[in-house]
Structures are given as C-alpha cells and as structure tokens.
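Hi team,

Below is the intake form for sn-glycerol-3-phosphate transport system permease protein UgpE from Mesorhizobium qingshengii. Please confirm the fields before the structure is written into the shared record.

FORM ID: S-0412
PROTEIN: sn-glycerol-3-phosphate transport system permease protein UgpE
ORGANISM: Mesorhizobium qingshengii
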Amino acid sequence: MSSLSAARLRRSIALHLFLTPLALIWLFPLWMMVVFSTMPDNGIFSPGIELLPHGNFIDNFNNLQHDTDFVGAIGISVSVAVTYTFLSVLLTSMAGWALARYQFFGKGAVVAIILGTITLPYAVVLIPQFIMVARDFKLANTWVALIVPPLFNSLGVLFMRQSFSMMPDDLFDAARVEGVKEWRIFLFVALPLARPMLAALAIILFLASWNNYLWPLLINSQPGSMTAPVALGTLIGLTKVSWGGIMAGAVMLTVPMLIVFVLLQRHFIAGIAAGAIK
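The structure came back. Fields below:
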C-alpha cells in the first residue's frame, strides 16, 4: 500500500471515528421516540430508562385513531403536500426562468423585493394573510386556503434563477433559431436540464408542507379537514395528554419522511451542489 493510500485510509478512519458518535447522538432522540411509541402512558414517565421497544404500539395507534381519525388526517396531509409541491415547483420555476433569461424594466427591483421577503419573519405576514384569506375571501376550512397562500417561495425562486442562469445561452438561442416557442424551450429544454435542482427543490417544499403546523392550525378549525400535525396536536388537552398516542403519531409522520429522504438523498445532494456551483 502506498503512503498516499495509507494517509487516505487514516483520514477516513479518523473521520468515521469523529462522525459516528455525532450520528448516534442525533439518532438517539429518534430511537427514543420509537421506544416511547410502544409504551403505555404511565411507562413513559417511569423512573428507569427503557431502551428497547415494548408491545403497546397498536394500542397507542388505536387510541390515536379513535381520538383524531389520524389515517384520514395523513391522507389530507399527503394530498396537500403533493399538490402544493407540484404547483410551487412549477410557479417558482417559471419565476426563476423569467428572472434568469429575460430582460425587462424593474427586474432588479423585483429581485430585490424577493430578497427582502426572505428577511421578513413569518409572524409579520401571518395575521394579515389569515384576515385576507378567512375574512375577505371566505376560504377558511378549504383546501385552497391550505395550498395557495404558501405557494410562492422566495428561496425557491432564487434557487431556480441561479440554476437557469448557469445554463449556456447558445443552447436556447439555437432553439429559437429553429423556431421553437418560448414555452416549449422552457418545458422541453430548460426543465429537463434542471432536473437535479427540481428534485432538490421538490424535496424541500414537500417536507416544508408536510411539517407545516401553524398555518393549517389557524385556517382549518374543522376536525375533518385537519392535517396530520394539527390532528396530533389536539391530543394535548388541558387535563389529559395522550403521550403514547402522540409518540405513535410522531413515528408515523417521521419515519416515512426519513425513508423518502434516504432513498432520494442522491438527487437532493446533486441538486444542491449543482445550484451552488457556477
């Protein structure tokens, strides 16, 4: 073995020795969430520390389903997240394409305004947005209110603007010379080239919608239209808290997303890296 290979092996071992304890520290709360989801409520607060799962997950899930119709709430969350992700990716891609490829009056001001919206805390726009949607448009307790208001994502627009800016101008000029319409250039030339970036953006937007709690809590007050995080929050009452049900619901919300991220992490990392390099 050459000295260079030996040095690389030593660095790799040292890196793994450093990162493995950090990974275990990060995974430990998730593992304890799984353990707590299999324990009765009185067992969660027992003096001893339990590190192995028990056998009460089905009972906790049955209690959760009885109290919240959690399966229906998950169905609503999946439908809202998928619809939101598709529409938001399409909207942010079109906005990013326009800002990257077209010259128009006020373009710099538009980019500055988009950058400025990133600095605004969400609490600043939350109440005006709620008043406009619920009182003025009378869209409370509807899927439109869940999906449409958060559609425009400033970071997504800037991310796609950067992605389209990296593409060669000659490619699009050649398509225009051949008489290809602008919308066909966008759909059949630009978007396929931006596939890794689109995948990364879709993952980010889907997770944001899946974990969104505050806006669905405000805009939807009917039990039949609650998303899964909001339904899970109803288990915290004034006199009773169903901790076993909360842990079981948290496992059902978290584990599928972890699996999806692990399966798609190659596309996520490739998209982020491609959007950051120019």
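SUMMARY LINE: The chain has two domains: 2-56, 68-235.

Thanks, M.
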